[in-house]
Amino acid sequence: MKRISQRDIARQLGVNVSTVSRALRGLDGVSAELKQQIEQLSEQMGYRPNPFAVSLRYDTTHTIGIVVPDVSFNHYAHIVKRIEAEARNAGYMCIITDSDEKQKNEADCLEWLVNMHVEGIIICPSQETTDFSRLQQLRKAHFPVVLFDRAPDVGISSVSINDSDSARQATNSLIDGGARRIAFLGGSNQMKQTTDRKHGYLVALRERGIPIRPELVKCHSISFNSGLSDAMELLSLPEPPDAILASHGLLVNAAMHAVTSHGLRIPDDVSIVGYMSDWVSELTTPRISFVRQNLREIGCKTFRLLLDQIRGNDNVQQVVVKARLELRESTR
Amino acid sequence: MKRISQRDIARQLGVNVSTVSRALRGLDGVSAELKQQIEQLSEQMGYRPNPFAVSLRYDTTHTIGIVVPDVSFNHYAHIVKRIEAEARNAGYMCIITDSDEKQKNEADCLEWLVNMHVEGIIICPSQETTDFSRLQQLRKAHFPVVLFDRAPDVGISSVSINDSDSARQATNSLIDGGARRIAFLGGSNQMKQTTDRKHGYLVALRERGIPIRPELVKCHSISFNSGLSDAMELLSLPEPPDAILASHGLLVNAAMHAVTSHGLRIPDDVSIVGYMSDWVSELTTPRISFVRQNLREIGCKTFRLLLDQIRGNDNVQQVVVKARLELRESTR
DNA sequence: TTGAAAGCGTTACCAT
DNA sequence: ATGGTAACGCTTTCAA
């Protein structure tokens, strides 16, 4: 797998590498005739510029790094796909890494990407992450970083949805359907996303004069098993909930599973609404009412924000993509 | 974002770069004292080796490329996640690209990866792809390439499942459940995966003495819409099928949708079985009987095969990961 | 119009 | 034990 370099072409033609370099990039200072010869031979020999040599020369890699908590989770897979498409369109390559929701992995990914001299990093922090100092340090050194999906207030540009408001809408719709004992199933309280969504939930309860019951709020970890045990506990309470708001796709699945395995019906006994992918909602019976997030838009805006920073705009911007409730059959 | 090089360290300490280089890599030829000084200063200044310089020097990048038809599709997302984990474990970085099931995109991805000097490529061809000459050409030049999931016979190592046999099992189970007019819903006939699965289906019918009805076989394209219109046509036949075998997750979804929108029940009127993710099957009502594929194993073995090639083993190996039918409630 | 040489950051080899 | 230098592939600047 011998690679052809400009030198090979130059040798073949008995000219200097610098001449070849100029010819191949269409700079002037090369006779039309020689230029043509060089182009033809380059084509014929299958010359490809060595991007590492170019990067070394310019200290520019045309590569960005992405860190997600779980590429195999739909939500992220769709966003990543969109980012990748946008990036490619802008001439950037993506290096995608997966933290598996672990803070330590995330730190490793981050260092790896920085070492790889990516020109910027797009990251959705793991659910364990509480320390953002490395990201802040990078930003301080004008290294481009954009957060998405989970966006704590750490002075870094981000793209997220209207977490609080969408949760408020969802809760209101449960109340409208007659629910009075509404449970909230969320991830860790360290995550601003969790507290924001919970905030919206609490606001709705307060606005509608529904008493807040601490035992109906379960915020532990984002995983099917954790969600399942929490949901099981909820349904085993002396006064079980008549509705559940779940703040993550896995928790929605867990809630459904718990409800049906308790022999209860959705929505007759327990309504369910949650944050999940549209097409997954389409598959369930009954279809779950959900907060629809525009993943294309999130991916697109996230990349745009990063590109902006790469091009020198250092302003911190918090972009909010509006998500809205879509009612299906899992609520009354 | 000034990057620290060995030269900076050398200057600071009044020594030569080559000494710094040796010290940092723990080679001998450096006094313990100086070594210690260099390490400390390097740490303090935040030195990171420039991978592009290293790559340029060695023509080795410790990077592999992955091309998938659709990262946002579960099946691929899970395999990619596994490949990424294996690769990281072996010190390799992944560049993941998405062909969006388009042959042209795929060719672009491929060239991009080759230009990036990845050390090997893992690829699942798009459903449009019929021309494998570029891959064969790369292999002839001893460039490592491994196919997965869709593995045509083109003399390139691959990892796939027992397509024909699993389809045979699935068909047999439908017959066991009393189905006699079994439809096959597949992707394009250009894909060996399609023809293999169809072959298994036909074998089962023949073995059990069930007449083969050409009008019950629909092999067009892998997409929800195409599957939906095919399934609709099937159900509108004078003698509609009493069972459907779908060869892709999207086609399973399409089949379900078509059946319910025809006011028919699963499995009472039409049984459904297909190739899909376990957890998606878990969500549907009734849960769809499916061919379980071990995605972790597929990812893992695929990377191993590539690593083998990178290390110089040029033998063509066709690895088959056994998939087996799991019965749920969508079949009788 | 073309050539020669320096430089990007690193490593390897040969001197000292 | 340490220094000097060439080389990887490419671009740029200056000289011819």
Structural key phrases:
DNA-binding, 332 residues, 12 strands, alpha/beta, six-stranded mixed beta sheet, homodimer
Low-confidence stretches of chain A: none
- By oligomeric state, this entry counts as homodimer
Shape of chain A: elongated
Average pLDDT reading of chain A: 95
Rg of chain A computed from alpha carbons, rounded to a whole number of angstroms? 26 Å
Tell me the strand order in the biggest sheet of chain A: 2-1-3-4-5-11
Report the structural category of chain A: alpha/beta
Order of helices and strands of chain A: HHHHEHEHEHEEHEHEHEHEHEHEE
Query: Biggest interface: chains and residue counts?
Result: A-B, 47 and 47 residues
Biggest sheet descriptor of chain A: 6 strands, parallel
Q: Helix count of chain A, per DSSP?
A: 13
Please give the alpha-carbon distance between the first and last residues of chain A: 64 Å
Helix content range of chain A: 40-55%
Strand content of chain A is: 15-25%
Number of strands of chain A: 12
